[in-house]
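Hi everyone,

Forwarding the result from last night's run.
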Amino acid sequence: MVLSPKTYKSLDVLRLSFHMAPFCCALHVILSVLQAIMPTAALALTTAYFVDTAIAILQGSLPHGDIYVPLFLLLMVLAIFTTVGAVSQLVRARMNLVFQRELKPAVVRKHASLAFKHVENIESHELITRATRDVAASLMEGFAAYLDFLQIIICVASVLLLIIAQVFWAAFVIVLFSAPMFWLSLRAGKKNYQAAQAAEKHKRRSDYLGELLTGRDNVDERTMFGYGDEVNERWKTEYEAGRKLQLKVTAKTYAISKGSAMSLAFIALLVAFTLIGPVISGALSPGMFMGIVASVFGMIQQLGWQMSDSLEKIARAGAYMKDLGDFTQLSEAKGATDSPAAEPITFESLEFRDVRFKYPSGDAFVLDGLSFKLEAGRHYAFVGKNGAGKTTITKLLTGLYDEYEGEIYVNGRGLGEYPPAALKALFSVVYQDFARYYVSMWDNVALGDVSRAAGGPRIKTLRGDGNNVGHDDPGVPRGGDGDADVETAAALAGLTDTIAELKDGLATPLGKILEGGQDISGGQWQSVAIARSLLSRAPVKILDEPTAALDPISESRVYEEFEKLMAGKTTVFISHRLGSTKLADEILVIDDGRIIERGPHEVLMEKDGEYARMYESQRGWYENS
């Protein structure tokens, strides 16, 4: 299924549902109609038949054997009604499974295709969160609400037809007093939904604070700094704010609904009393009287509470469909879901020429006239203070943002001339906030070269001397050279001892989500991210401050090891700490979105400019390295 970019309305809940599961939806509608008719007309008529027959038998006007037919009919109606309810629940469960199967992949595909600017923008990010959270459940709730509303209408109509056939004026009285219930229920439903929307921001904050209080990732700092009491007070404030908003309107809704229901119940009693006269006069049988009264009171229950609940859910479904429509209309990045090309292009040069860029939600230019050129086979370092624009360069290179001024060239051709798959295969980036995948160690590393899954070329060796260093683990699925490559990349990233400590070696799931999973340290996770980059066949390797969590000396050593492994290849180090800069063939100093200095470490130190000042201020960090 594909979600078309369009404006969705509340009734699109029904359209999408029938599109995904036409048979189940049609069956559910038929069963709902039966459920609406049977408790009123069918049950009332069979009850009347049974009671009237029983009375006639007691009076001696009918033989005792005549009771079996109405009794059988009454039991059959009750059995069918119970069966229809059970089958309806099964159909609804089946529909939910179909919705999950069809909608979730469609939403994930759209989410994965979004332009990166929407992910980083807070407003669009909140929209994405609302639209992608419980999409199948939201659609199912809306569909069920429409059917509940249909059942109420059919129930009321069948009861009124039954009354009209017996005492027409009583039906007129019920309609006269029931009409306001529709308006009150609709108003209450909308108000309740609005309150839920207003309380949502408080709920998000309380959920975040609750995670700080109970989350496993925060336990160390929570214990060390003792901020639990303060965060708990803030959580209570946000929770109470949201709860009171919801409670206020819920109380009003309850008062309106139950007050109206009591009014209708009074009317139902009045109708019952007025029908006593026709019963005494013989115009209405005692059985029909009991059937009508039971149906009227059942109708009152639906009008008094179920009407408000179904209309509220319909209003909520309409709001969700609006969010879903807005989500589908968010712009997409070209080739966002394409896999990297199986064979990377030969890299020769990279050039930024007077590039200016500002983020969609920002006013100032992060890059303002940035120009530089990088050549193949050399090591480069981009340095500068936080916020200077270093990471932004990586985002432009990898195509996360394409709305910039100026030109970016690869091998003399504009960046936009290359297909996304080619750009993905050209760069391998280890970010500061590198991903931690809770799958096996083998899969974590193998993700560095996803083309192997499609039968792409595989690396024979990662070392110039042709030696493969690996961890022999019989539990790892064997696939030829690819397995040796994964083992080699892991070993070169310094993971040999880590793998040896894992219960099932490379086959061990990392984290605690999968059965048998084991945690590893932050530094070990960092080595896993570097192993992915080593496995990648991308000709340009970028380290975008992945070692920011390490101390300066450890960081410097990581860069030294990486530089040795990448001898003869093109690498870019991005850092605001300068322990790795001496390894680079050329250092580019960025400030306010421009290159202000450029050259080898020794040359820049002799210039005694910004780089020399930064390096001298950090010299003490590396004296023992």
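Confidence is low (pLDDT under 50) at residues 453-481.

Cheers,
N.
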